[in-house]
Amino acid sequence: MLLKLLFLVLLGQIRAKPVEDEPVCGYEACPATNFSTLNVHLIPHSHDDVGWLKTMDQYYFQDVQNVISTVIPALKQNPDRRFVQVETAFFKKWWEQQKDSVKQDVIKLVNNGQFEIINGAWSMNDEANVHYQFTIDQYTLGLRYLEDRLGKCSRPKVCWQIDPFGHSREQASISAQLGFDSVFFARLDYRDRINRLGTKTGDLIWRGSSNLGNSSDIFTSVMYNHYSAPAGFCFDIVCNDEPIIDDEESPDYNWKSRVEAFANFVREQASKYPTNNILVPMGDDFRYQAALNAYINTDRLIKGFELFPQTFEGKPIKLLYSTPTCYTKAVNDFVNSNNYKLQIKSDDFFPYADGVASLVVGYFTSRPASKRFVREANTMLQVAKQLAAVANLPYENENINSLKEAMGVLQHHDAITGTELIDVTHDYHRILHKGISDAVNAINPILSNLISGSDSLKLESCLLANVSVCLQAKADQFILTVYNPLSRVVSSPISIPVETENWKILDSNGDEVVYQVVPSITDFSTLVDETTSPNSLDFIAKDIPALGYKVYTFTKVATKPTKRITVGADGTTFEIDEVSGLLTSVTMNGVTLNVTQDFLVYKSGGRSQAYVFDPDGDPQRVASTVTVKKIEGDVYYGVVQEFSDWAKQIIKVYKNDSSYIEFDWVIGPLNIDDGGKEVISQFSTPLQTEGVFYTDSNGREILKRVRNQRPDYDYTDEQPIAGNYYPVTSKILIRDENLGVEMAILNDRAQGGSSVKDGQVELMVHRRIRSGDGFGLDEIEYGHGIVVRGKHFLVLGPVSGNGEKSLAAIERDVAQRKLLPPWVFITNQDVSGSKNLEYSSLKRPLPDNVQLLTLEPWSDGTLLVRLEHVLEKNEDENLSKEVTVDLSDLFVAFTVQELKETTLAGNIPIEENVRLHWPGSTNEAPPQAPRAPTDLTITLAPMQIRTFLATVTYNNL
Ligand SMILES: *[C@@H]1O[C@H](CO)[C@@H](O)[C@H](O)[C@H]1NC(C)=O
Ligand SMILES: *[C@@H]1O[C@H](CO)[C@@H](O)[C@H](O)[C@H]1NC(C)=O
Ligand SMILES: *[C@@H]1O[C@H](CO)[C@@H](O)[C@H](O)[C@H]1NC(C)=O
Ligand SMILES: *[C@@H]1O[C@H](CO)[C@@H](O)[C@H](O)[C@H]1NC(C)=O
Ligand SMILES: [Zn+2]
């Protein structure tokens, strides 16, 4: 008995602490390389999509569990063998099924560098449609999971984004800020690849930010061909390539000839790269399911190069089991000792064509409803994490983790992109829906306690308010709790489906709130199982406290109270042509401009599908006449436009907020008897834009685009439309430099967009395509093609702004408020006599140019806190300046005692973060002085994100 106890105690200790018999990992564990040989870095890897043709679970149980399970014993047999593990969503599933002895084996193999974690994020995220907040969160989740189980040697140094369809600059910046030293990918425009190989610039330095100086520089390596093993050298059971037969007696003996064939491939590749190192991926999708087979052959290949020596430009060719980390180190050693300056690139790798007329830009819009769902889930995730921090919940909260993991999965490059098969889409929706419900369950008691002092309030969310469904709002009385996840006070329009027209709304002070009720934009009853409400009620939730909420009470009344507050439109107006029914001009910020807006349809060409956009000719108008109806009310001025029975829109100017004009549209179902339709919202102006427009990179920095031009390679394309499509995660804008006037369109989900003609911008809002190759995009719900509802926000004015703020600063403000709009909870329970009908977690809001990007529990007594400066350095005279915030006496629920700065994912103390130096990469940003842990002030430069572990003590409330 005693022995058994002792055993358990020991086991407990082993579990708690990863084995550390002198771990030698990272660069120290790299195979020795030598300047006088050509080093061929063989990279055993398996590219495991977190859903695509199969659901995530199908892939795991049919494929991925075999990969990790067979790799581990194969690595134990030969200390030279390596494997790189990438997707943490799958690693978690595997790890949790293993017994302790296997776990210990894995830790040993991590600690000696054989089983190396690269990327380490929950999934290999897409780079076009993801917002940077999603990317940062999913790396944070993955890296934390790994480090908790595997220890420090699991910290990746490599961003391994081999499969996403084009690459964003923000991904490079985030990678650098995570402490990574390199980025690898395989997909770039085919002309760019040819050019880079020809000029030996496939290895380069990528400047991830135009604000952060060289702290965002990162070594980037473009793969030679694809991420597959060289043709003929897939030694996997799923391939039929010749194994290497080293038995000289055998009639099939082929050792020498296989070595020579491989050497020919190597020489070809080596002639295209700048140093004496090349990277050769040995793997592919879901490979290494019978890993031993692959390793035995690779062992033989390596040995073969010793027996039958091969050379390249007079140097011996040496094959090595290696990793991308070790390739990076070898290239770094070479460039430093030769003072060789790699090319420095400062734009991005969009758009991506994988062949002639094969513009992979369709996925910027594909599955638009899913793309919106992800945004909503993000808002809930931030709300949940904030409330968890306020309530001192532990990091390991199953319900909140469920949403974190769901969001991690959804960022995968076949999830948010919409390039997966339809059954897989449905599975993603299931995962996300479960994540949201779980998170709501986790925070319900917290909010209930804050509001009423007890657990008894059951707060629901109306996820289907967009299609006029909200069960609780059918009652004669209900309560809305409007929660604001931003760290500043905001006022926000709230829209809720209701049955009847007359209501009395009281805010948390008991003051009456103005509202307006109009018929629902369209009849949604065929889109849902639930019954829809005929009307939409809109009101402005005014001054919702930072990281806090306000409670509103709704009571149905017989007639509308007569009390009215009329709010002027503050110089923001628009005009509609009564004959055409279209928008004709917009006045904002002192500028009046002829702006027309219309919905147009591209007929899908033969190549259009989930990935590719291949329009057949110019777009045609949806309708030649548009019916319009003016809406009068106390909340907004507006018109309802009906383009056709499947295209409707309300244009609104909110009376309290003149900083944007809202376009609230409903598109669908699309009739595709003709093969396919791709619908755009197009804004046309007389602005002289000279081929230039601007789009954001993952919602963060803005990149300049020049029509029909690529910075890196000669571009002449026969596709004038698709070839100019870029991802628009948050905004697209055009500017007339002579007039000094700018117009920006912001969106509520990722979309593809372009400026195909001067003065014009378009955003693709919906696509439905019947296509033969399995990647058609025919989303059906309730018996017909899906309907999508969404919003665009137009900002117009002088570049210099409105006298208070630049136009860019106004756009940032709107973008933030639309990314993280308040979350609305509803209940039919009574809250009279409750304790807090209004609440803020902050004693004072943060400045307008700072956002509390993350607040979440991290470990006992510690919270993860991320602050960001939300402007770029040249955007606004005042707001772009450095800003300092003080975290002492800021939070209501707790007091910050100490702050320890870390890299972006929270896993590495900033002073432990040592990155490789690259010749030519020189810093322009001033070095930051080391901080004392008790220093609670944080200074942020433009676009800077700083991450801290905050030691806190909770206050008795
Ligand atoms: C480097 O490789 C060359 C050629 O194989 C060999 O002669 C030399 O000893 C090696 N140097 C080191 C330091 O390994
Ligand atoms: C704006 O449109 C009106 C009506 O079409 C036209 O008369 C006017 O010249 C236009 N203004 C500019 C600056 O293009
Ligand atoms: C309404 O929102 C839900 C949840 O985001 C989404 O699944 C649905 O497709 C949306 N409906 C429309 C018509 O956009
Ligand atoms: C950035 O510049 C500084 C100083 O010029 C240098 O020490 C550092 O190594 C550079 N960073 C990189 C990634 O090369
Ligand atoms: Zn993939």
UniProtKB/TrEMBL annotation:
> Which keywords fit this entry according to its UniProt record?
Disulfide bond, Glycoprotein, Glycosidase, Hydrolase, Lysosome, Metal-binding, Signal, Zinc
- Annotated Glycoside hydrolase family 38 central domain residues: 358-432
EC assignment: 3.2.1.-
Spell out the SMART domains in the cross-references: Alpha-mann_mid
Query: Domain of life here?
Result: Eukaryota
**Similarity annotation:** Belongs to the glycosyl hydrolase 38 family.
Q: Where in the cell is it found?
A: Lysosome
Gene Ontology CC terms: lysosome
Q: What class of enzyme is it?
A: hydrolase
So what does this thing catalyse? Answer: Hydrolysis of terminal, non-reducing alpha-D-mannose residues in alpha-D-mannosides
- This chain's source organism reads Tribolium castaneum
Q: Which residues form a coiled coil?
A: none
Q: Could you tell me what this protein is called? A: Alpha-mannosidase
One GO molecular-function entry: alpha-mannosidase activity
Q: Name one GO biological process term.
A: mannose metabolic process
What start and end residues bound the annotated signal peptide?
A: 1-16
